[in-house]
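Quick entry between incubations.
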Amino acid sequence: MVSDFSAFYIFLKRDLTLAYRHRSELANPLLFFVIVISLFPLGISPESKVLQGIAPGVIWVAALLAAMLSLDSLFRSDFEDGSLEQMALSPRSLSLLVLAKVLAHWLVTGLPLILLAPFLGVLLFLPENAMWTLIATLALGTPILSLVGAIGVALTVGLRRGGVLLSLLVLPLYIPVLIFAAGAVNEAARGFSVAGQLYFLGALLSLSLTLSPFATAAAVRISLS
Amino acid sequence: MWAFIQKHSSPKYFYRLAGRLIPWFGWIFLAFLIAGLYYGLFVAPPDYQQKDSYRIMFIHVPAAWMSMFIYMVIAVAGAIGLVWRIKLADVIAASSAPIGASFTFLALATGSLWGKPMWGAWWVWDARLTSELILLFLYLGIIALNSAIEDKRTASRASAVLALVGVVNIPIIHYSVEWWNTLHQGPTVTKLSAPSIDISMLIPLLLMAIAFQFYYATVVLMRARCEVLDRERNSSWVQDLVSDFRTK
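Done. Structure below.
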């Protein structure tokens, strides 16, 4: 009999291995992120003044969309080959297994986004003193996107065309993260303190970390029924 | 207690009860609506600043209240449906969502009409407008999820989860948006101290709020009756009902 902790670890390892075997798919959300951001200078203006002003918002909106697009793969293959059903039937808590899947998903989609963001910040002339804030908000914010998004994915995984519906369900729930994260980067660029926003993002992260696995597990069970 | 709930929440009993309640609620709605409109349009004095244009408030504010109230109804009904598997709760939640979305849209539309002469713009990205808009998105999400899943039971349970997640999020969205930007006037009725709205304006406002509540009760029962018939179409009492109707 495996303990809860080792079940969590086994699932994390399994999902990471699966992700590693499909490396090319992992790059797609990142490419999307880069392309969307590079569209803004083309669409608005290449002037550094203008881009500087919109950089935090643009990077964050693009991160939001990239995170949402990558979500679809979270439960899809497990649902199709029946492993999700086995997870639900296992004596381990489904919330814990779901959390392991979300963590693996964040490690392969959220983390690269954080590493990539400073370069895109440079492309959009984001001031250097805002760079660390950008990284900090992404580090605190992208896990929230994965955790909250997992609920939406779990609800729509049984549907054939869940993609557009997923964005309708999930994007409104992402708004607080967007407000605080983009707000913090904006403030940092102007040289103000951003502790308040970061604390708030931390609070949102701990809230979603504690509550969303249960909602996701419930949603998975509904989708399987 | 449990037997009482079981009896009264059985679809068959509900169908009959709702049929009897609808005319009552409908007439009460009409009475309050006429009284509220009369007070609001003729008795209440013009505002010292906004003149007569403030009178749209008597639609705008109750609609905004209803938009939040109905979301709470959906969430509570959804929780009841999830936990106790009461079919009627699912029906109420499913039939409330489009009404709630309409009220939210009404609040936004009247707010926009009111905003044009007052603020000089159809739309401003102010905290309350924005959170109302997000509420509309949440409603549309619930409606879309409800119609995307074919099995009605599963659809109801899925949208119940979504509604509950939304309820946790609504205060967060509200306060984050408030912190972000604000132009809208603060609450004038629901403050803990005495309301800062004049009594001559408060009366029609409350009359209209009660009218809207009864309107919602009437319409939700009508919709729920249809929904019950649709969901129970294979049960014997619905078949009997239909055959009775055919022989008449």
